[in-house]
């Protein structure tokens, strides 16, 4: 039946004199039925359990479909590769999804579109985010403060120099 233990490797230290947590199951690998077995079905998950205080509890599961679920955090010392080519059309699909923020320490290279799906989305630039480009719902994009959009060697620019003045600058002709 679903949830039955088919087999298990359990690790404990039963000779520990201090008792309680020291002698409980510290770790286990359990083969668990994911459905009732039949002539044409033997869906089995591998469940990995570890303890820190008390009996070991589930921290990772490899489901019979090939899905790996990890509770807590996971650290990869090398590249993490997904070869799935599912297009992302929302925040809940695509071949890589996170329900939280995403931090990237190095450059990001995208092979196609970048979509910011919320109104008033902000793209920040600089170590202290002193320049921002904000989506203004139904109107366009807003460059913050009196920052400029510059061209060539920065001597040519467009700038909202105040709330009522739009400045165009160039070294020669406009």
If you had to describe this structure to a student in words, what would you say it looks like?
With 174 residues, the protein is mainly beta. The chain is built from no helices and eleven strands. It has a five-stranded antiparallel β-sheet with strand order 1-2-3-4-5, with no helix packed on it. It starts with a strand and ends in a 5-residue tail after the last strand.
Percent of residues in beta strands? 25-35%
Number of helices: 0
Q: What proportion of the residues is helical, as a percent range?
A: under 10%
Secondary-structure element order, as H and E? EEEEEEEEEEE
Quaternary state of this entry equals single chain
What is the number of beta strands?
A: 11
Please list the strands of the largest sheet in the order they lie side by side: 1-2-3-4-5
What features would you highlight for this structure?
174 residues, mainly beta, five-stranded antiparallel beta sheet, three-stranded antiparallel beta sheet, 32% strand, elongated
Concise account of the structure shown:
This protein has 174 residues and is an all-beta fold. It is built from no helices and 11 strands.
Q: What's the structural blueprint in terms of helices and strands?
A:
Layout: E1 5-11, E2 27-33, E3 44-50, E4 57-62, E5 68-70, E6 122-125, E7 131-136, E8 140-143, E9 148-151, E10 156-159, E11 167-169
Antiparallel strand pairs: 1-2, 2-3, 3-4, 4-5, 6-7, 7-8, 9-10, 10-11
């Amino acid at each position: 039946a679903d949830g039955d233990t088919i087999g298990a490797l359990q690790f404990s230290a039963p000779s520990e004199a201090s008792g309680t947590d020291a002698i409980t199951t510290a770790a286990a690998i359990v083969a668990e039925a994911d459905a009732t077995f039949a002539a044409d079905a033997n869906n089995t998950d591998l469940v990995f359990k570890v303890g820190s205080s008390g009996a070991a509890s589930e921290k990772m599961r490899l489901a019979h479909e090939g899905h790996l679920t990890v509770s807590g955090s996971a650290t990869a010392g090398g590249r993490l590769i997904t070869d799935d080519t599912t297009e992302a059309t929302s925040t809940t699909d695509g071949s890589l999804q996170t329900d939280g923020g995403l931090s990237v320490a190095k450059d990001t290279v995208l092979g196609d579109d970048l979509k910011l799906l919320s109104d008033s989305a902000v793209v920040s630039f600089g170590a202290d985010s002193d320049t921002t480009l904000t989506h203004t719902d139904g109107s366009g994009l807003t460059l913050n403060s009196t920052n400029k959009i510059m061209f060539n060697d920065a001597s040519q620019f467009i700038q909202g120099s105040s709330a009522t003045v739009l400045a165009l600058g160039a070294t020669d002709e406009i």
